[in-house]
Structures are given as structure tokens and as C-alpha cells.
Amino acid sequence: MFPIIGIAGNQLIKATETFQGNQVTYTPQGFINAVQQANGLPIVLPIASPEAAPAYIDRIDKLILAGGQDISPQLYHEAPHPKLLETNLQRDLFEQALIEEAIKQHKPIFAVCRGMQLLNVILGGNLYQDLSNYSDWTVKHEQQPTAPQFATHEVTIVPATILSQLLPTTHFVNSYHHQALKILAPSLKATAYSPDGLIEGIESADENTKLLGVQWHPELTHFINPAEQRLFDFFVQEF
């Protein structure tokens, strides 16, 4: 049996990003490859009305939330910061519905980068809209111009967590974010931290709710780093 892994998709919608003049629904190829390598069956879920979320979640076994645009600050009741980048409220609201329905249907969620941030917001937390708002910011969290397969900074894994079963206590990761978790949602617990104190991993505080999130991008390194592939192997086959 191949577990069916729904991957919440993104869109190319701006004129400068379209594919031969067409808007495109997509997910990064790394998620497809990593899920297939873990003997899962990946299916991309296109952005749709929130009302469609129950039907989508009913047809999959587990849900992946990928990276992408900034989270709209409307979701955590803040005005947009001057350094806020592109948002897509339609995507936010659809993925909110996917999260709520997956939890309702007891389907596991693996949330990556923006996905982890959105999961925190939907469950009652909030974000630094830009790292310039974080007074202890001392670590490079934007990967460019370094290629994604090369780590940018280290993270420290919290003992007795899901991540501690899969990764070494000190783990080196890539990094593509200018937003970060600020107040952690009450139903979550932090599982990894960067050297400057930002939350880099989360899981549910309730062991009966299967949530796993990382701030970095294992889908971009899984093919050269077995530790990153273990995240997908665990999620697809064990979680």
C-alpha cells in the first residue's frame, strides 16, 4: 500500500511568472521526489474554495504544507508591515480549511517553512512579519546566494521530541525565511531553535494530534542528506 500524501499546491499567477502565458498550479519537485522515495503517493491539491477542504482531506491519508508566500497578517489581526512581501489570501484561507479539516479527521500534517508558520497562526499563534522586528536577530536566515543543498546555519533539537528521534541534537539546515514564529500557539510546542533563539521546529503538545513542522526545506536536501529524507520516511510510513 502507498499512503496517499496530499501536498497543498501553490500558483504562478503574476504575468512575469506565468508559463508560456498560462497560470500554473505547482508544488516543488523535491516534495514529489521525497514522498515517492518514502513509498508514498503524492497528489497536489490545487488552491480551491475552503468549502472543498473536507472532500480533499477525506481522499488523502496525510497532508503536507509547503513553502511560498508570506502569511497574510489579516489572519493574526495585524496591519501589514512595510517589509511584508507577496501574500495570497486565497491560498491562506484554503490551507486554513485544510489544516482544520485534517485535524478534525485525525490526518497527520507535515508543515514546511511557510507551512509551519501558517499552522502556528491558524492554531492561535502569530509571526514576526519581518526579522527586523526581532531584537535578537543575529543569524543569516535567508539562504541566497548559497545553493539550497548547502546549510546556512545550525539548529538545536529539543530532547524527547519527534525531531530528536530523527535528527542529531545539532543539525545544519538551509534557510529561506524573513518571517518567523513570534508567539507559539498554545496547542504547539517548540522542537528546534536557531542559535539566535528563533523557533525552527514544532509539534503538537497533544500526542493524539499528529503535527510536525520545520522552518527549513528538507525537500531541497533530502537527495544528498539521509537525515532529511528520514523526515519524509517517518511522515509517510510511521506518523
Q: What labels would you give this structure?
A:
Gamma-glutamyl-gamma-aminobutyrate hydrolase; 6 helices; Class_I_gatase-like; alpha/beta; hydrolase; PuuD-like; 239 residues; Peptidase_C26
Corresponding CATH architecture: 3-Layer(aba) Sandwich
Helix-strand string: EEEHEHEHEHEEHEEEEEH
Rounded to an integer in angstroms, the radius of gyration calculated over CA atoms is 17 Å
Question: How many domain regions?
Answer: 1
- Tell me, briefly, the overall form: globular
Enter the CATH topology name. Answer: Rossmann fold
Structural class by secondary-structure content:
alpha/beta
The side-by-side strand order for the widest beta sheet comes to 4-1-5-6-13-12-11-8-9
Unreliable spans:
none
Mean pLDDT: 96
Q: Assign the CATH class.
A: Alpha Beta
| Beta strand count | 13
| CA distance, first residue to last residue | 15 Å
How big a fraction of the residues is strand?
Answer: 15-25%
Keywords: Hydrolase
Protein name: Gamma-glutamyl-gamma-aminobutyrate hydrolase
GO biological process, one term: polyamine catabolic process
GO cellular component, one term: cytosol
